Amino acid sequence: MLKYIAKRLLMMVPIILGVSFIVFMILDLTPGDPARMILGDSATDEAVELLREEMGLNDNVFIRYFRYIFNALRGDFGKSYRTGVPVIEELLARIPTSIKLATGSMALVVLIGIPVGIISAVKQYSIIDTVSLTTALLLTSIPNFWLGLMLILFFSLRLDILPATGADTWKHFILPSITLGAFVLASMIRMTRSSMLEVIRQDYIRTARAKGVGEFAITIKHSLKNALLPIITIVGMNFALLLGGGLIVESTFALPGIGSLTVNSIRTKDTPIVIASILFLAIAIGIMNLIVDIFYTYIDPRLKTTIIDIKNK
Q1: Which of 35, 69, 100, 222 has the CA that lies 20 to 30 A from 195?
Q2: pLDDT, mean over the chain
Q3: DSSP bridge pairs for 86
Q4: Lowest-pLDDT range of 75-84, 105-114, 167-176
Q5: Is CATH 3.20.20.30 the right assignment for the domain spanning 92-268?
Q6: How far apart are CA 15 and CA 11, in angstroms?
């Protein structure tokens, strides 16, 4: 297992390098001069050109990219063009907020989506099933920014029971978590329902019923356990995406997380911050992929054979 994990981690290296290269090139092609942004519009052309030379912005784009990667491997991701603060400090200050938001959203998805999907599958074609599928369709269709604004108008302005902005207490994360998790919740309901329906039609489920096993035991111990693989995939992959996928949500609720930092940095062409944020997201997705694969082996022991074969190659 350790060899398999090591191989998977090594496979992440070219992916991360590829992502960083693409982002670096895209930012280089976008209009805007970081030196001018740092000095301001009132700075002279000579001062701007001198700063560009000091920062190495006049070098070839490939030279600048390899210089950035070399420094990043040593833990130096540069300094923010906008604030002058080291990038690693900016990220470490923002990551906890994004983790809290992603955790709250995923907790909402798991605690509501899985039970509703199970009930919808067990009560197929009932009113509960129809309502749950309709709700999932609506949640899929509603844009995040619109849902966030509606929640602010209702719960913050009209009822005045939840704060609209900030990240000081756990109450500040309720509305953003609902907004961010709405789309994933819809996917969780539909995936849980379809997976459960596929399992409960198997022969061993009918055999369990014929032996007199209770419906609750059949649903939880037999059906849900064998339907967990796609559910875990949704949980693992979407948790990583939620870490950096709250770009609009964090901006709507003024949360100081990775998403809002990335948006502001793109607007000001703060290249070091943007690249570091994207790299953080790419690493998070790769690690969550690995964790999901490891969980697979504990849920379905048959998958251990595949991992052993990969390890021995």
Answers
A1: 100
A2: 83
A3: 79
A4: 75-84
A5: no
A6: 7
Distances (CA, A) of 313 to 4, 6, 95, 278, 300: 10, 13, 37, 32, 22
Sequence-distant (≥ 6) Cβ neighbours of residue 259 within 8 angstroms: 98, 244, 245, 246, 247, 248, 249, 250, 251
For 110, list phi and psi in degrees, rounded to 5: -70, -45
Which residue type, as a one-letter code, is found at position 145? F
Domain with CATH 1.10.3720.10 in the chain: 92-268
Contacts of 252 (CB under 8 A, 6+ apart): 144, 145, 148, 149, 152, 176, 179
Three-state SS at 126: coil
Residues 6+ apart with CB under 8 A from 279: 16, 19, 20, 72
CA distance 177 to 104: 6
Strand-pair partners of 79 = 86
In the chain, the amino acid numbered 6 is A
pLDDT of 254-309, one tens digit each? 888 888 888 888 877 788 888 888 888 888 888 888 887 777 777 666 555 554 45
Q: Can you say how many angstroms the Cα of residue 298 is from the centroid of all Cα atoms in its chain?
A: 24
94 token code pair: 């923002």
